[in-house]
Amino acid sequence: MLIGLGVTQAAELKIASLHPLLSEMAKSIGGEAVEVVDLFPANGDLHTFAPGSKQIAAAADADMLLACGKGIEPYLAELTESMPADTVIVGLGRDIPNVYLPNSHRTDPHWWNTPENMKRASRTLLAEMNRLHPEKQAEFTARQKKYAAGMDTLTRKARLAFSRIPQNRRYLVTGHAAMCHFCEEFGFTPITIHGISKESEGDTATLASLLSELRAKGVRCIFTEVGASPKILEVIAEQLGVPTAPLVLDGVFPGQQSYEQLFMHNVKTISENLK
Questions:
Q1: Less packed terminus of the chain by CB within 10 Å, N or C?
Q2: What Rg do the C-alpha atoms of the chain give, in angstroms?
Q3: 181 in Cβ contact with 68 (< 8 Å)
């Protein structure tokens, strides 16, 4: 927006973000009143990324630092210590109920894989933005309502697509445990080849037992992960005689599409392979 003779109005809140989907949310709610700095590198890996001096410098004068929370950023405490004392650190997963891995006390931190959770997180972000910049409360609130309505639309589309999948086919087999929130929301049973990190490997006996389980359940597809090596999953799929199909699990995609595009990619891929 131009004021007077060529003077540009600066954004009134600077927000640094540790995940591209959080950046998109902040831009959607803040509009021109916020400047969002993406600290996560293009085509980065969520499980190996840690901010370096370049990212720390870019966030140094931010009013707010957005994190996913729930332990997905093991470096967060150290990063917080390097930030100015008046920077507000917001883990947007803080108000989202935990979902546990099957037969485990471990939680799945990948909360963004449902639009309902994104809507919850947007309310947390709205409250923090309103607190820091109350003069824009009406504008922020209106934009958050629009964002939330978009998430509701995605949920309805997903439920319609999944209504065509019989209950005995609702097994979602992935490499690492990233879809438990999704499965609980949409009525699937998650089965993971590895643990919560895609780098972890199962031993031979565990994999043999898993193959037996997958055969017994009549699993129809093995879902690989965009950006990760599908080798082990392809071997398992070959032994089962079923196809593989790629999902976006960490919310990160080469070229970084919007949340709507990423989520609907997953919905379409799952529905087409399990219906």
A1: N
A2: 20
A3: no
State the number of CA atoms in the 13 A half-sphere of 121 facing the CB. 27
- Distance between CA atoms of 156 and 216, rounded to whole angstroms? 32
Beta strands in the chain (DSSP E): 2-3, 7-8, 13-17, 34-38, 64-67, 88-91, 171-174, 189-192, 222-225, 244-247
- 172 phi and psi, to 5 degrees? -110, 100
Tell me the CB-side half-sphere exposure of residue 12, using CA atoms within 13 A: 14
Cβ atoms 55, 6 nearer than 8 A = no
Exposed / middle / buried, residue 168 (Cβ in 10 Å: 0-12, 13-18, 19+): exposed
pTM comes to 0.90
What are the strands, taking DSSP E only, across 55-149? 64-67, 88-91
Q: What is the pLDDT of residues 63-80, one digit of tens each?
A: 999 999 999 999 999 999
159 backbone dihedrals φ, ψ, rounded to 5°: -60, -40
Q: Distance between CA 223 and CA 271 in Å, rounded? A: 12
